[in-house]
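#struct-pred
JK: can someone run the complex with glutamine? inputs below
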Amino acid sequence: MRVGVLALQGAFREHQKALAACGVETEQIRKPEQLAKISALVIPGGESTTMGKLLMEFNLLEPIKELGKQGMPVFGTCAGMILLAKGIAGSTQPRLGLMDITVERNAFGRQVDSFEAELDVPVLGEEPFRAVFIRAPYILSVEKSVEALTSFGGKIIFARQGRFLAAAFHPELTGDLRVHRYFLENCIS
Ligand code: GLN
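RT: done, structure tokens with the ligand placed:
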């Protein structure tokens, strides 16, 4: 199995490393024709407005949306989560809109640019997950079909809807592979 990592901008190399450490082959995705080679896609953190514009410029937005609707598993972190959301509070920026969630960008306040926290994530086991947040969004609301996997400060920050997985934090930066493994084992069949 080969997993694509959207490589237009942001922390794609770190995701490739994490996936490689899970024993999976990866492919940097920059062109629509590359999508034929992959069975799942990871969308990294970065800047969601820039990534959205680049997705359109590189003619990737519609093909990825279509593949997602047809069942391709997609995992988005931070800006990637924003791109997966149907709703983005106060914004009309381009998005894939594959998940029935509404997100708020830069939601933990601009003063707190980045921080780390120990998260309790029942689906990952008993050991807390050390998460890095960088100008992170959170999930304001979810539809019934979405499973909220973890909250922090009363806000949902990790959620799954079938083959789609979204994290407000950056699991690719800490060396703990449990979130990537969760995606590989549960969202891809
Ligand atoms: N604040 C960024 C955005 O809105 C996301 C930050 C990140 O991906 N680390 O796109």
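RT: quick notes.
Residues 5 and 42 are 5 Å apart (CA to CA).
The longest helix spans residues 12-21.
JK: thanks, will look after standup
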